[in-house]
Design goal:
Blueprint lengths: L3 H20 L6 H23 L1
Helix pairs in contact: 1-2
Length: 53
Protein backbone atom coordinates (compact mmCIF):
# COMPACT_ATOMS: atom_id res chain seq x y z
CA UNK A 1 0.00 0.00 0.00
CA UNK A 2 1.24 3.46 -0.83
CA UNK A 3 2.25 5.72 2.01
CA UNK A 4 0.31 8.88 1.15
CA UNK A 5 1.70 10.89 4.06
CA UNK A 6 5.27 10.27 2.92
CA UNK A 7 4.37 11.05 -0.69
CA UNK A 8 2.79 14.36 0.36
CA UNK A 9 5.85 15.34 2.39
CA UNK A 10 8.20 14.52 -0.47
CA UNK A 11 6.00 16.33 -2.98
CA UNK A 12 5.90 19.49 -0.87
CA UNK A 13 9.68 19.31 -0.44
CA UNK A 14 10.25 19.00 -4.21
CA UNK A 15 7.98 21.97 -4.90
CA UNK A 16 9.69 24.15 -2.31
CA UNK A 17 13.13 23.12 -3.51
CA UNK A 18 12.23 24.02 -7.11
CA UNK A 19 10.96 27.41 -5.96
CA UNK A 20 14.13 28.05 -3.98
CA UNK A 21 16.32 27.08 -6.92
CA UNK A 22 14.41 29.34 -9.33
CA UNK A 23 14.45 32.32 -6.99
CA UNK A 24 17.94 31.69 -5.61
CA UNK A 25 16.73 31.93 -2.03
CA UNK A 26 19.21 32.00 0.83
CA UNK A 27 19.36 29.41 3.61
CA UNK A 28 17.64 31.59 6.21
CA UNK A 29 14.40 32.08 4.27
CA UNK A 30 11.13 30.52 5.52
CA UNK A 31 11.00 28.25 2.46
CA UNK A 32 14.45 26.79 3.17
CA UNK A 33 13.56 26.39 6.84
CA UNK A 34 10.42 24.50 5.83
CA UNK A 35 12.55 22.20 3.64
CA UNK A 36 14.73 21.43 6.65
CA UNK A 37 11.64 20.68 8.73
CA UNK A 38 10.28 18.43 5.98
CA UNK A 39 13.61 16.58 5.81
CA UNK A 40 13.33 15.86 9.54
CA UNK A 41 9.70 14.75 9.23
CA UNK A 42 10.52 12.46 6.30
CA UNK A 43 13.44 10.89 8.16
CA UNK A 44 11.35 10.39 11.30
CA UNK A 45 8.52 8.83 9.32
CA UNK A 46 10.88 6.46 7.49
CA UNK A 47 12.49 5.44 10.80
CA UNK A 48 9.06 4.76 12.29
CA UNK A 49 8.08 2.71 9.24
CA UNK A 50 11.28 0.67 9.47
CA UNK A 51 10.66 -0.05 13.15
CA UNK A 52 7.08 -1.14 12.49
CA UNK A 53 7.79 -3.39 9.58
Amino acid sequence: MADLYLKNLESERRQLWATCRLKGLAKDTPERQRIAALDEAIAAHKDKAMDAG
